Amino acid sequence: MTVNCPSGHPSTSTDYCDVCGLPIPAGTPAGSTDPAASAAPAAAAPDTSATPAASGAAPAGQLCPNCSDAASADALFCESCGYDFTTGTMPRPASSLDLSSGPARATPPATPSAPAALAEWVVERWVDPDWYAVQQSDDPCPSPGLPTVIPLTEKSLLIGRPSRSRGISPEIDCGDDTGVSRRQAQLTTDGQRWWVEDLQSSNGTYVASAAGPLPETPIIPGQRQELNPDDRVYVGAWTRLVVRKATPEEQAGQV
Question: Which PROSITE patterns match (predicted)?
């Protein structure tokens, strides 16, 4: 006695199809065909008149009863949804234990990030009462103290005051000195020497030696001026900048 599976295959087994492995509904009469299978195009039925080797045709296919995607006749699983054609069940969902077991499924170790480059140079930002005294600023001068040490990690750095609306974020922030322009000056280096260039600032950029008097003439805007090791840069109402080599302790503190 034979029965027809839902895909129309004749099967001597009454629980699973001998051809495609689909479960056969209980009570299917012998030699009968499932109505859904009867409505399928005749071309979907396998050609049993010749083997694939003899005719050169591809193996007859089957439809997945779970997602209706086509699969080859000898497929054990549906490639789309994982339906098991042999047992008629869906695959077991992966658990956290499955993901963590075995070298093939283990999470690859995180790639260590490259260490941050150490700054060989720093700039000291001071409050200079002597410079403030000759600027005649209406703003009160902050109390002088220890300098703010800023690592110089780029070859070109902006001196100025930040502005969120204009998208200005200077590397050498002089935001507390309102006499400093938003884009006051630019510091550049070749790794050994440093230059300063005024960027058409409102109050000018001044350079003078530490051993000499306070400068009275600003540098020419748009022209770079090389800084000597003992030079100081004056901007705003009270800001004095000194570019120097970083100490080992300062480099260690950057790690």
Answer: FHA_DOMAIN
| CATH code for the domain in which residue 226 is found | 2.60.200.20
Rg, Å, the chain Cα set: 41
**What's the total number of domains in the chain?**
2
* Integer Cα distance of 115 and 194 in angstroms: 25
Q: Quick check: 178 and 239 in contact, CB under 8 A?
A: no
Residue 124 bridge partners (DSSP): 149, 242
pLDDT in tens, the chain (255 residues): 677 877 777 777 777 777 777 777 777 766 654 444 444 444 444 454 444 444 444 446 788 888 888 888 888 878 777 778 787 777 666 555 544 444 555 566 666 655 556 789 999 999 999 999 999 899 999 999 899 999 999 999 999 999 999 999 999 999 999 999 999 999 999 999 999 999 999 999 999 999 999 999 999 999 999 999 999 999 999 999 999 999 998 888 764
The two tokens of residue 194 are 């440093």
- Same domain as 240, residue 191: yes
- Tell me if 114 is assigned to some domain: no
Max Cα-Cα span within the chain: 116
In 128-193, DSSP assigns E strands to: 148-152, 156-160, 172-173, 185-189
**Cα torsion for 208, 213, 218, 223, to the nearest 10°?**
-20
The structure tokens listed for 248 are 């080992």
The residue segments making up the domain with residue 153 are: 121-252
Looking at the fold, whether 15 and 63 belong to one and the same domain comes out as yes
What the block records as the tokens of 126 is: 């001071």
